[in-house]
Amino acid sequence: MTIKLYNTLTRQKxxxxxxxxxxxxxYVCGPTVYNYIHVGNARPAIVFDTVRRFFEYSGYxxxxxxxxxxxxxxxxxxxxxxxxxxxxxxxxxxxxxxEDVAKLNVKEAVHHPRVTETMDDIIQFIDQLIEKxxxxxxxxxxxxxxxxxxxxxxLSHQSIDELRSGARIQVGEKKDDPIDFALWKQAKxxxxxxxxxxxxxxxxxxxxxSAMARKYLGETIDIHAGGQDLAxxxxxxxxxxxxxHNDTTFANYWMHNGYIQIDNEKMSKSLGNFxxxxxxxxxxxxxxxxxFMLSVHYRNPINFSDELLAEAKxxxxxxxxxxxxxxxxxxxxxxxxxxxxxxxxxIADLKKRFIQEMNDDFNTxxxxxxxxxxxxxxxxxxxxxxxxxxxxxxxxxxxxxxxTVLGFSLNSVDLLDDExxxxxxxxxxxxxxxxxxxxxxxxxxxxxxxIILEDTPQGTRWKRS
Length: 465
Prior knowledge:
CATH superfamily of the largest domain: HUPs
Low-confidence stretches: none
EC number: 6.1.1.16
Pfam families: CysS_C, DALR_2, tRNA-synt_1e
Distance between the termini: 41 Å
Mean pLDDT: 91
Helix content: 40-55%
Largest sheet: 4 strands, parallel
Enzyme class: ligase
CATH architecture of the largest domain: 3-Layer(aba) Sandwich
Number of strands: 15
CATH class of the largest domain: Alpha Beta
Subcellular location: Cytoplasm
Catalytic activity: tRNA(Cys) + L-cysteine + ATP = L-cysteinyl-tRNA(Cys) + AMP + diphosphate
């Protein structure tokens, strides 16, 4: 089955064909590391990690690159405010980013390039653009000649004249044209800087990704991805400078995830609705946060609120309960000789439908709906008087297989600690001894800890309230 994805460049779904069979070169724009990441940063991290996981599930090797912008205006401002060096702040928040996304079960990138570690490549890239006539130096700054690229605006689908009408030359800039953009910025007094043919300075924002993508993935890559807010001007400028420099297509497919709103309002510090992932995963199960993010198609906007997160928890718990039912019933199942082909066909069909939904532009919302059908069918089977170990195993394996693709876990082995296990065993013994008062005390105690006990013909089981 063929994977189709929506290409922002063409504004339509296209059949995915990699440059090199069996391998995907994928570049995702990472964070500017001057603070902890917020939920807006978490969405592309989760979305494109899931895209990567499904490609790998489909048999591809994904060369996944996610960069860190570790020097820019925001970092310099933070360094001045905190009286620290830029590299110190960058190191701290790169570490924090990796810790936060790891909790969300985001896989480590194959390459995590940093601007400060790619400086020679960036300077060489700019120098070659100047040599080709696509860029020019002006008193220590270097600008890209936007009009030199005839296809400028093809990603955002805007004409260059429309773009020029809103462009302005800021104080201190010496551009030839208002729509030209900075490749290199002359250092101000006291700022972190590097030697270059144009004097002390640092890169502009857009050039870094072009240089890093070329260094780690080559002149043409399969997929370039990021948040919708990056399509213009960041990705538009990347296309212009890369295709002028490399004389070839920069990326064959462009993917962008939709915006996040907080309680139906745009997230911003001024509104006080700025939610940091660092804080979020301390209050909520990261599995539920990830499940929530994937419950909406990645290109659609998503509204984030405590109420919606609570609804996501309830939905997630339904899947978890079905999975736990299977684990519990497995202990009472037999290797039955009866024909289970109908159930096996149902399980195979659910897997096929999950793959079809993911093949259709990574539709995780519909893929999760298939998981709920899997839960429904597994619950029906688990409630039968006799169950086959083979069928239970197939249901369990498919739950684990598909949730691994989506990057969350239904396994709750950590929910019972030694103390609670001992209390359950004590309650069982108390009931055998007909000490029902003690048995009830233990049940109430466990309920207070968030553990609900269920007494079934197969024994005592538990679940989270």
